[in-house]
Specification:
Shape: globular
Distance between the termini: 41 Å
Helix content: over 70%
Largest sheet: none
Number of helices: 12
Number of strands: 0
Strand content: under 5%
Order of helices and strands: HHHHHHHHHHHH
Length: 290
């Protein structure tokens, strides 16, 4: 009886080692989880100190992230939805241009609202609708002669990620946790709580970061990069994959750090949104591509 716990521990360690050896995707997942736990522990004791050291409500790049950090993610989601609509209303042998009419019409509507927002000085309206309409319009025109049905599975991954992370996980946890934002603690006299403290509904929505979740909406592009290398390990494909990875990871990190820089979120707020996005993307990859 005394040796059973030790035997169970060894068995679990052997399973973990086997899981690690199974594939590079499993290795990435384990590294993400270990990093998440380590940083969550560190930020649990340093969140307020980090924000006090770096937060600046007039930070130029922090405010740029606040204004524009979510817009590209909205555009990416809009493209994915356009592809799914096209796949739903058309057959593979039909005119490939007809399947793009809904996306074209929607993109023009959003661009029109963007123009109205610019004229009427509604910055938030202009940025949000422009972030949706311009990428959707550009993608539609660039791929006008391409078959969108071929990208249906990839579009589905994007939409599921958007539903699970920014829409459900982040918003629900925000309401339940009720964490006060660092700018309200540092400059308005609010009460600081660690990330693990559940405050209930208070109207405060610092934990986790919605902007950061939207900043990581491009993570599924790494699936395309991985598949491209898997099909052909040419130097060109490797260079494309590296460049794409730098852009995707760079943008996600920028958006997350910009929220800390402007005092809108703690480091742990951005960390948890990043971890959710990463793990969900890996799960979707294993489900639909492995």
């Amino acid at each position: 009886m005394l040796y059973k716990p030790k035997g169970v521990l060894i068995e679990q360690m052997n399973k973990l080692i086997s899981y690690w050896k199974n594939s590079i995707v499993n290795k990435v997942l384990i590294i993400i989880i270990i990093t998440w736990v380590a940083l969550a522990t560190i930020f649990g004791f340093t969140d307020l100190a980090i924000s006090a050291a770096v937060a600046d409500r007039d930070s130029p790049w922090g405010n740029f992230g606040a204004d524009y950090g979510e817009a590209p993610g909205y555009g990416f989601i809009a493209i994915a939805i356009g592809i799914l609509i096209a796949a739903a209303i058309s057959k593979k042998n039909e005119d490939i241009h007809k399947q793009k009419y809904p996306a074209l019409i929607l993109s023009l509507i959003f661009v029109g609202v963007m123009i109205y927002g610019i004229i009427d000085d509604h910055q938030r309206t202009a940025i949000t609708t422009g972030g949706i309409g311009l990428p959707l319009l550009g993608f539609t025109l660039i791929t006008w002669n391409k078959q969108w049905s071929n990208w249906q599975k990839f579009a589905l991954v994007i939409v599921i990620l958007a539903i699970l992370n920014p829409l459900l996980l982040v918003q629900i946890i925000k309401l339940v946790w009720g964490r006060v934002r660092p700018r309200d603690v540092l400059w308005e006299g609010g009460i600081f709580t660690e990330w693990w403290v559940i405050n209930g509904y208070t109207g405060n929505q610092s934990f986790p970061s919605g902007h950061t979740a939207m900043g990581w909406m491009f993570l599924p592009l790494l699936i395309l990069a991985a598949n491209r290398i898997k099909e052909n390990r040419s130097s060109k494909n490797i260079l494309i994959a590296i460049s794409l990875s730098i852009l995707v990871l760079g943008w996600g990190l920028f958006v997350g750090m910009s929220r800390v820089a402007v005092g809108a979120h703690y480091a742990s707020d951005a960390l948890f949104s990043t971890a959710f996005a990463s793990i969900i993307t890996i799960w979707l990859y294993k489900r639909y591509y492995k």
